[in-house]
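quick one, 260 residues, struct below
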Amino acid sequence: MHRNRIMRDVVCWGMGLSVMGQVAASGQVTLSTNSVADAFVRSADPTHNYGGAGALSVSGTIATNANGVQEGALDSFIRFDISSMVSQFNATYGVGDWTISSARLLLTETAAPAQAIFNRGVGQFEVRWIANDSWVEGTGNPNTPNTSGIVYNDEPTILSNVDTTLGFFTNGGTNGLDIFPLSTPAALLGDMTGGGPVSFYLTATPNSTVGFTFNSHEFGTASQRPFLQLTAVAIPEPSSVMLVGASVVGLLALRRRRVV
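---
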């Protein structure tokens, strides 16, 4: 397929992927989209679901809530549908003529959550890409947890040895936006270029004091829900690479003749 040669730098936000940036000559396109499913799970209540809550959390076992009580480990699962983003990249560059150059996870933190089951504190946590997208968000919440979706006891069946670490991070500990630049290993890139759902798992590192609570996709303000931001760039055409290589060889040959 002939590559679209229009080079743009466009920033898009939200489910509609509406254009918010300007056309530029940098040759990259940046798009962002909200999560379509997310849930947190609790070691202190391993058989109940909290997928309908307006917040997510990742916490170490030694973190405490506002009353100084340890509420156990909390992990979060987030899923994004990136099909619209992939369609836009294909329309811009041509199918198979682009690659992801960067990925970022954007989360809006609540430093002092009022709900007692959320621990508080600054500390380290891990973000992983997970291969399993079949987990169910559910409708439970802190006031009325239920068994409608993913629970803590499901983790051994959902997580696998092909899941890949995307980085270790520390929360800000203040209200507002936290931006986490993710690594882009081959497993993640392969999943993304397929254009389907992409899932992430957030968990505290051992002995971490993290008590990181942030808005879920049920949160009332769309702009403060979880976002995945991807930047794509064109893959150089073989003819262009060969032309650059030939030019370099020619310049070196000319330099040698001048030296002689």
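The chain has one domain: 11-259.
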